[in-house]
């Protein structure tokens, strides 16, 4: 279960809120939101992608959109777990450290159907000084559709 009180993306500093996939201040973006679960052990995102994001097979989600969902959700997950690792809470006043993708590996297991809730569950498998390794699973209709592993790195605020 998700704790939908604070989306991690809503705690990004002003400069970092314009991502097309997850930026709250990008008017044309998707506004993907990632939330820690109740006990803070996982981060969850849910989205129903618009029909414009179909792949070569019309009833399935485009693989590039799957990668974008993993990308945005994974960096938010990395930011959350690094924040938590420092002993900090996620609050409405948080300005969380920002992470970017250094590496993203995706295993496509099954086609992801259009018109369904896509749920991504993520957790950190390693938290280092500047990098966090994130493991993710994507589900639709309660079936595993894809898995991903991300190496995310912290950026400096002046990047």
TrEMBL record:
Q: Which GO terms of type biological process are on file?
A: fatty acid metabolic process
Question: Which reactions are catalysed by this chain?
Answer: (9Z)-octadecenoyl-CoA + H2O = (9Z)-octadecenoate + CoA + H(+); decanoyl-CoA + H2O = decanoate + CoA + H(+); (5Z,8Z,11Z,14Z)-eicosatetraenoyl-CoA + H2O = (5Z,8Z,11Z,14Z)-eicosatetraenoate + CoA + H(+); hexadecanoyl-CoA + H2O = hexadecanoate + CoA + H(+)
Identify a single GO molecular function assigned to this protein: hydrolase activity
Q: Which UniProt keywords apply?
A: Apoptosis, Cell membrane, Cell projection, Cytoplasm, Fatty acid metabolism, Hydrolase, Lipid metabolism, Membrane, Transit peptide
Q: Give the E.C. number(s).
A: 3.1.2.2
Which compartments is it annotated to reside in? Cell projection, Ruffle membrane; Cytoplasm; Membrane
Q: Which Pfam families match?
A: 4HBT
**Membrane topology type, per the record?**
Peripheral membrane protein
This protein's GO cellular component annotations are: cytoplasm; membrane
Question: What class does this enzyme belong to in the EC scheme?
Answer: hydrolase
Domain named Thioesterase is located at: 60-144
What PANTHER family does this protein map onto? ACYL-COENZYME A THIOESTERASE THEM4
- What family does the Swiss-Prot or TrEMBL record give for this protein? Belongs to the THEM4/THEM5 thioesterase family.
What is the name listed in the Swiss-Prot or TrEMBL entry for this protein?
Acyl-coenzyme A thioesterase THEM4
| Organism encoding this protein | Anaerococcus tetradius
